[in-house]
Amino acid sequence: MGDSQIFIETPDNVLYDVFLKWLNEETIKKISFDLNEPEWMLQSRLESFKIFQKIKKPDFGPDISSVDFDNLVYYAKPKKWFVWAADSWDKVPQNIKNIFQRLNIPEAEQQFLAWVGGQFDSSVVYHKLKEKRQKSWIIFDDISVAIREYPDLVRKYFMKLVPSTDHEFAALHGAVWSGGTFVYIPEWIQISDPLQAYFRMNTYEGWQFEHTLIVLGDSTSCSYIEWCSAPKYDKRSLHAGCVEIFVGKNSSMRYTSVENWSLNTFNLNTKRALVEENSHMEWIGWNLGSWATMLYPCSILKWDNSTSDNLSLVVASKDQHQDVGTKVIHIWKNTSSNTISKSISKSWGVNTYRGLVQIQPWAENAVALTRCDALLLDEISVSDTIPTIQIKTDDATVSHEATAGKIDENQLFYLMSRWLTEEKAMAMIVNGFISSVTKELPLEYAWELNHLIQMEMEGSVG
Q: What pLDDT does 90 receive?
């Protein structure tokens, strides 16, 4: 096909030659062409687009009717000098590097993190893999590169857990996805150091549709940390990423996500894991930004003794509606799940916990525990809990607890009597409320997130 170009003025047009706007087959073909994809991926995209045109919008959650699919940028092609998937920090262009450095990514890598991947809009700009890991046949790469280098392996798993028929934004994602990460851990490999990926949505009227695909072989372990952010423009932006995780037998996976999108962003993300026999899946999630979020990480406990934990913190402030929860499907015997959700609402913010626990007829001796704790910092914010529990066997233990409360006046008075301002005293109480989440993170991440919470608390008093 021809190399036609559609130019759109943006605050960051110095970085790009091409912005593809408008949602049609030509845009989809252009994305596939620029990424040098095999024919099967192009056909998969076109089929997803057909599904997207027919599928119904969600009939629940926040109002997303203002998403204008014809006025989003679906692909941004870097200028020729731009380095794709640089394997050295020194090779990353300085203006991209400046953004990442403000997030302490290089320092984090030097001090603690083993591997780092960075994506700027459509393109992965930085990947680092320790030499000793390469010798173990571990793959940690830009998924667009992995499709070309390991086509059979990627095709076996790509959008198998989250098919395009799942919902409207899965279909959109399947049509226009770009960038993301592919992780493959062979059997018997244990990774003690976490992998890290950073996704930055930087375009005006932008989008991000990264695809994260993680495959763990039998008897393996892996920890993955993902950080997402976007600057604030005066136009709505859309994030509709997808995460698929396959956890082999006798394996464990920890997936940590920090989503700090700007307040003009619709965050409509889909995350799902398939957990095999004697294996464990752990979701840790922070949601601090976005105008509206719909996010429900799902664990499918497929075989005997598979387990999952879901630990999340959600903050809703002015003009924010966070519709966040979890899904757990117990399919076989002796499976167990534990969900802890913490939410903070302030300044007209709306938090909704929307959860699903499903116990199938064969899931004998299943155990599912859910606890939702909501903290409201004023009289005008909202917190709702909407659980769905489906039990199809007599042999299961299921519990759901939900609490909602305000700042304890006695605690506040005590801290203020120790010469703390009211704002600092409230921040200390909030940090205690979220400590069960922060203690599960690496030290530097816990420090960074506590700092973000302090920023959120600014202006909460008076």
A: 63
